[in-house]
Amino acid sequence: PRMLPAAHVSDVVADANVIGAWHATSLASHANQLAAMPSLHMAWAAWCALVLWRVLRHGDNRSTAWAAWSYPLLTAVVVMATGNHFLLDLVAGLATLALATWVSDTAYRWWARWPGVSGFRAIPA
Hints:
The protein is mostly helical. The protein is built from 5 helices and no strands. The protein folds into 2 domains: 1-35, no CATH class; 36-125, no CATH class. 54% of the residues lie in helices and 0% in strands. Helix 2 (40-56) runs antiparallel to helix 4. The radius of gyration is 20 Å and the shape is elongated.
């Protein structure tokens, strides 16, 4: 991360001189350089793994279901190694996913109990 020069982690965006990056002259005064919190890279990768795990964990696909968790693990390594996120950003991304999953699952269970609602049954993917 750019705020820890002693860590010798290169800021990929700053080093690549990407047009439209946070440090470009047109965006420098408007950019939120702290917007990496929470890490949506981590939340997205963990969400993908969670969906695959929920769909594939039963039956013959258990090993594939567990292998899906390699995606968020690799994402965590990459975004920290490239200086895009701190560990706390990743933890906050996972907390964001946990909250969203809880809200979604709770709403689903509530809606499924509503009288007259049909079509809420488990079907194979």
